[in-house]
Amino acid sequence: VLENRDLQDAIKPQEVEFHSLNFNNTLHWQPGRAAEAKATVYFVQYKVYGQSTWQNKEKCWGTQNHFCDLTDETSDIQEPYYGRVRAVSAGIFSDWSLSCRFTPWRETTIGPPTVNVVHSNKSIMLKLQAPRSPYRRRRGSTIPMTSYYDLLYQVFIINNLLDEQHRVLVYEGKGKVIKIEDLRRGVSYCVVAKTYVPMLDRSSAYSSRQCTML
């Protein structure tokens, strides 16, 4: 019995937590210290905070992965959720490992906008597109993150003559088409952008660089 108890503790999943980007909500965990990769499988359940019964996640019932996509199960973004995981190895079941409470609207990471550059003689035109959630409208199109948050775009320009790390904020607002003017011809410029959520005081990572020579 003691050996079984030791094995139960040794295979118990560690660090169970939700990772979330634009409401793509995935439960992650680390294997226990003695969990052999091939011999250990995992079982995942989830529930809304306050509910008494746990729901099985069928696609992650006996999985060898160390993650489980719960995007569809956590689609009510204002609700707080829990996930939990247990491991089985050599017929021995570990105890459940519980995540912290997870509320998608409050905790998801919002991605940067997509940036497209169109340039003319002394200006750069940018077209910005909000990141999109995994959820769909009735007609099938994915719902942009602007439907869930009051988002601002922050646009930065990098003059490659000066310093590649020196980003100058040239625009902040909700516009989807931005014109940056009075630039020098023959100079290479790069543009990056962020989304900013004033209500949560949170910024995305930078978008990938879009560079152009005027």
UniProtKB/TrEMBL annotation:
A Pfam entry, by short name: Tissue_fac
Subcellular location(s) of the protein: Secreted
Gene Ontology molecular function: cytokine receptor activity
InterPro entries: FN3_dom, FN3_sf, Ig-like_fold, Interferon/interleukin_rcp_dom, Type-II_Cytokine-TF_Rcpt
Classification via CDD domains: FN3
Gene Ontology CC: extracellular region; plasma membrane
Keywords annotated in UniProt: Disulfide bond, Receptor, Repeat, Secreted, Signal
Entry keyword Kinase: no
Domain (Fibronectin type-III): residue spans on this chain: 12-107
Function, in words: Receptor for IL22. Binds to IL22, prevents interaction with the functional IL-22R complex and blocks the activity of IL22 (in vitro). May play an important role as an IL22 antagonist in the regulation of inflammatory responses.
PANTHER family cross-referenced by the UniProt entry: INTERFERON/INTERLEUKIN RECEPTOR, INTERLEUKIN-22 RECEPTOR SUBUNIT ALPHA-2
Family: Belongs to the type II cytokine receptor family.
Protein known as: Interleukin-22 receptor subunit alpha-2
Organism in which the protein naturally occurs: Chauna torquata (Southern screamer)
